[in-house]
């Protein structure tokens, strides 16, 4: 197992009936290689939302995303897979579903740098709540991310 501090840049675009939203985050994270999987952990700080601990797990056939703040969310992405996950809210349990339409992941083990382009539809209790596009880059602090 190896670990390395990396620079992280992530851009989220959300397309919803109530209006589109876009935000970008640049932060420092920790990249861990364990067996055949690559993990990227970092903390998001978004105004009015506090801090959220985020962990991406990149493996050969799928990507999973865990987000932990007041609530915990885990989503799995794999083209052709509709993944259902329980999501605990203050109002009760909901069932979140992801329907992945695009995953482009590249990772350079020598440079310890990578990128992800991800597109998916998110549903809550079988109702589509939005279309999401995520662009993620990570790499050494001296990389193009600066």
TrEMBL record:
InterPro entries: Calycin (IPR012674), DUF1934 (IPR015231). Gene3D superfamilies: 2.40.128.20. It holds the Pfam family DUF1934. This is DUF1934 domain-containing protein. It comes from Fructobacillus americanaquae. The lineage of its organism: Bacteria, Bacillati, Bacillota, Bacilli, Lactobacillales.
